[in-house]
Amino acid sequence: MQRKSGRLLLASGLLAALVGAAPAWAQAEADAASVARGKRLFMRCAACHEAVAGSKLVKTGPNLHGLFGRSAGALPGYQFSTDLKAAGFVWDEAKLDAWLVKPTALAPNTTMAFVGMTDAAERKALVAFLRSLK
Ligand code: HEC
């Protein structure tokens, strides 16, 4: 009797682990798809931005590799607008999302001339892609 209930417990534990793991796989897959979509969407930024670790190539805009956790307008070697330098925030998901909607909402006189992205899913994918670059 004792052994039987033990086995039952083990079986239900395994089942719980499997059921618990399934959404994690699904989530990882969704994240990977989002990053891949964001990478494609980055074509819209690539005319002005690189996203390459340590690159010193100066395009119209700054290198966006390692953006998350960095202060706005602070990448050494790039000549930012005084407005973005003075903005005084650190890049995170919410800030980048807002920036993609309308850069001038965060820095009124920014030199990034950009038609905002109205599609929230596109912004989310781009955020996921840039966040994946560490
Ligand atoms: C036409 C050129 C151009 C395009 C296209 C463009 N940017 Fe920019 N971007 C700039 C410039 C110029 C700056 C510097 C702004 C300043 O100093 O005020 C900038 C700044 C930024 C910054 C601030 C970086 C920092 O270190 O503070 C982010 C983030 C950014 N761009 C993201 C993007 C993303 C994502 C896209 C594509 C959806 C994009 N940009 C498209 C020109 C562009």
Automatic annotation (TrEMBL):
Coiled coil: none annotated. Transmembrane segments: none annotated. The keyword Metal-binding applies. InterPro entries: Cyt_c-like_dom, Cyt_c-like_dom_sf, Cyt_c_1A/1B. Keywords: Electron transport, Heme, Iron, Metal-binding, Signal, Transport. Residues 33-134 form the Cytochrome c domain. Residues 1-26 form the signal peptide. SUPFAM superfamilies: Cytochrome c. This is C-type cytochrome.
